[in-house]
Amino acid sequence: MPELPEVETIRRTLEPLLTGKRIQSFELLWARTLAFPALTDARHSMIGTTIAGVRRRGKLVVLELDSGDLITIHLRMTGELLYRDAGILPRATEREPYLRAIFGLSPCAELLFYDTRKFGRISLYTRETSASLDTTLGIEPLDAGFTTAALAIILRRERRLKSLLLDQQLIAGLGNIYVDEALFAARLHPLRPANTLGESEVAELRTAIVDVLSTAIAGHGTTLRDYRSGLGEPGTNQHRLHVYGKPAGSPCSRCGAPLARISVDQRSTTFCPECQPTVAHMLNR
DNA sequence: ACACTGCCCTGCGAGC
DNA sequence: TGCTCGCAGGGCAGTG
Predict the structure, then answer these.
(1) Is A116 (CB) below 7 Å from strand B?
(2) Would the pLDDT of A283 be above 80?
C-alpha cells in the first residue's frame, strides 16, 4: 500500500512528464473514485487548465493547476497512477477492469488511475478550500521542521505509540509498513504510551522515522503486490523490511528471538518482544 | 482524549 | 477441483 516513500517516488516520476501538460478531458469509470466536487463541476474546473507542478503532501499526490486549484489523489491501498504517452502506446479505450479514471492530456498523453479495491479518491480543491489540507494533515516527517522537539510535542499525550504515528493529522505520510519498521529500528514497543518516552528515545524515534523513509525512497518504495511508480516500475525496498509482513514466530533479524504479531487499531502489527520491550519488561530486568 | 467497531472493496491463500 | 471464509488495510463515522 502506498505510503510516503511510494507516493514520493510516483511524484518524482510524474513531475517531469505532467508539468506543462493541459488537461483536456476527465473520464470517470467508477463514480466514487471522485470524492468531490460533483463530476460536472470537477470537469468544469479542471478541463482547459495546465498542470503547473506535481507535489506531495503526506500520502497525497497533488497536481497544481495554473488556475490555482489543486487535484489531490489518494491511492489508499491499491491505487496506481500511470502515465501513458498516447503517441507511443495505444489509448486506454478498452476499459481495462481496474481502470477508474482517465485524465486526457495534451499533447497526446494520458494519466491513468487504476484501483482494484476502489478505495482510492480523487478530489479537487480550490484556492479557498485547499487550506483545509493543512488542518487535516500534520507535519511532513522529511521536512526540516520535523525536529526532536517537534516530535516531543506530538508525543506529549497518553496514547499508544503506533496509533499516534499512524494519525495523519499529527504526522503525514506514515502507514502500517513504515510505522512498524520505524518502531523496530528505534527499539520501541508499539503499545508504549507515547508520553512515557524519554528524551533520547524521542530522538531515536525521529531518526528512525527519517531513516526508514529516506531509505525507502532511495529504493523507489516497497512493492508487495500492487505498488508501481508513475512509469509502472516496482520498488526494491521490500527486501529491506525487518518486521512488516513477517509471520509471528519468525526470527528477529537483529536478535533471533521470535517475532510477535498483534493487532493495533485494526492493523496487523509485527515487532520483536526482545528488541522492543514494554516499560514493564524493562523494569522487570 | 482515547479505543473500538463497522463500512467501503476485491483478490488471494488456507482449509475443507 | 471448487467452494467458502478470513485477512489485508487508510480513513472516516459512530459509539462507548
Answers:
(1) yes
(2) no
* Beta carbons within 8 Å of A269's beta carbon, 6+ residues apart: A162, A176, A180, A190, A261, A262, A263
Instruction: Name the residues in A49-108 having a C-beta closer than 7 Å to nucleic acid strand C.
Output: 58-59, 74, 76-77
Residue-wise DSSP of A193-220: BGGG--HHHHHHHHHHHHHHHHHHHHTT
Q: Given this model, what pLDDT does residue A203 score?
A: 98
Through-space distance between the first and last CA atoms of chain A, rounded to whole angstroms: 38
How far, in whole angstroms, is CA A207 from its chain's centroid? Answer: 19
Distance A21 CA to B4 C1' (A): 46
What are the pLDDT digits (tens) for A200-231?
999 999 999 999 999 999 999 999 888 999 99
Q: For residues A55-60, give the mean pLDDT.
A: 97
How high does pLDDT run on average in chain A? 93
- Would you say the pTM of this structure is higher than 0.90? yes
Q: Determine the Cα–Cα distance for residues A10 and A82; give it in Å rounded to an integer.
A: 9
CA of A268, C1' of C7: distance in angstroms: 10
How many CA atoms lie within 13 Å of A255's alpha carbon, on the beta-carbon side?
Answer: 14
CA A247 → C1' B15, Å?
18
Q: Is the CB of A159 under 7 A from strand B?
A: yes
Listed range (A43-52, A94-103, A189-198) with the worst mean pLDDT: A94-103
Q: Residue with CA nearest B7 C1'?
A: A119
Where does the pLDDT of residue A284 fall: very low under 50, low under 70, confident under 90, or very high at 90 and above?
A: very low
Q: What is the DSSP letter of A247?
A: P
Task: Return positions of chain B under 7 A from a protein CB.
Answer: 1-11
